[in-house]
């Protein structure tokens, strides 16, 4: 929708998954922080780029959101996560979800 409306530079964050187009200003790329699953609110590292998407699968931000049907309840987080970058948000999500423990 933003591209159709003429946007040439934007960053959209949907629940921690990010779609980037262009840069925040002419010239420099976007810089985003990657969550540290052991220190909430503190980035473990940063990623810099343009025209890409980043998706993360894990419990760093949403904590107990994994359901174990055998236990009829939420699984305990183990602090592991996987972040993947790709050219589209759907590709980044598919990669992160398939690799995450």
Average pLDDT across residues? 78
Q: What's the CATH C level?
A: Alpha Beta
Helix/strand order, N-terminal first = EEEEEEEEH
Tell me the strand percentage band: 35-45%
Task: Please characterize this protein's 3D structure.
This protein has one helix and eight strands; from the N terminus they run ββββββββα. The protein has 101 residues and is mainly beta. It has a single domain, classed as ApbE-like domains (T-fold, Roll). The chain has a four-stranded antiparallel β-sheet with strand order 1-2-5-8, covered by helices on one side. Strands 3-4 form a two-stranded antiparallel ribbon. It has a two-stranded antiparallel sheet with strand order 6-7. A hairpin with a 2-residue loop joins β1 (10-14) and β2 (17-21). The longest helix has 11 residues, at 89-99. The N and C termini lie far apart (33 Å). The model has no long low-confidence stretch (mean pLDDT 78). GO terms for molecular function: transferase activity.
Give a short summary of the structure.
The chain has one helix at residues 89-99; strands spanning 10-14, 17-21, 30-35, 43-49, 52-58, 67-68, 73-74, 81-86. It is mostly beta strands. It has a single domain (10-99), classed as ApbE-like domains (T-fold, Roll), CATH 3.10.520.
SSE diagram, text form:
Layout: E1 10-14, E2 17-21, E3 30-35, E4 43-49, E5 52-58, E6 67-68, E7 73-74, E8 81-86, H1 89-99
Antiparallel strand pairs: 1-2, 2-5, 3-4, 5-8, 6-7
